[in-house]
Amino acid sequence: MRSFSPLRYSCTYIKRYQHTESQTKLLPVSPRKWKSYRRFADFMEHHHSPLQESIIHFAASCDRNLWGIYMDSTRENLMTTGITFCRQLQTQNQLEESRIFPYLAQRMPEFGPNSGFRRDHRRLNDSVAELRRYLRGCLRYEEKLNLNRLGLLIHRVRTVLHTHFEKELEAVSGHNMRKYWSLEEMENVMIPSDGLKVRSVPAPERYTSTSKVRYYVR
């Protein structure tokens, strides 16, 4: 007969607990529930995709060999396209920092005030501000249009932007959101498709299963 060993028992208990915990995290959910967990990811993708397409389109327009293929070959169109992109990107960053990040930061430290996402936004805002100043100067004929210089400025924005978008989408993916938020909490946050009426929402801890209050991000 094997003698009782507290150490062996505790180790077995820990292993079983860890195994059960990992199984719980990986339990599949229905498509409806998964869609609820992906709501912030869908919101991000909805606004990120046009910006990614715009920066690719804009970068291609600075290639002399592609001039006139990706956009109208006029100086004014090039400038206005770039300025519009800068404005849209800055608006999106402001929206995320003022409305989306504070809500997520209540549970997810990667969205906190000193997080990497905030630093990425600061880097993007600095690069975009420099790009915007140059484009405005060219549009007013205060600067001479140099496609090489313009391409370099765009590349600086594009490099940070691509990596930042990937990290953001990973952070709000359905798999990651399940670690921090309950299904009930995700279902009780209403996110409009336009994303232009977003406001801060109450702390999710205030929500109870018997409460009829719904949190609106609008």
Summarize the structure in words.
This protein is mainly α and 218 residues long. It has a domain at 30-179. It has helices at residues 6-25, 31-37, 39-61, 75-104, 116-139, 147-171, 174-180, 183-187; strands at 189-190, 215-216. The chain has a two-stranded parallel ribbon.
Number of strands: 2
Based on the structure, what is the oligomeric state of the protein chains?
single chain
Shape: elongated
- Taking strands numbered 1, 2, ... along the chain, how are they ordered across the largest sheet? 1-2
Report the total helices: 8
Enumerate the spans where pLDDT stays under 50 for 5 or more consecutive residues. 4-24, 194-218
Element-by-element helix/strand order:
HHHHHHHHEE
List keywords for this structure.
Dimeric_xanthone_biosynth; 218 residues; 2 strands; mainly alpha; 8 helices; Hemerythrin-like domain-containing protein; two-stranded parallel sheet
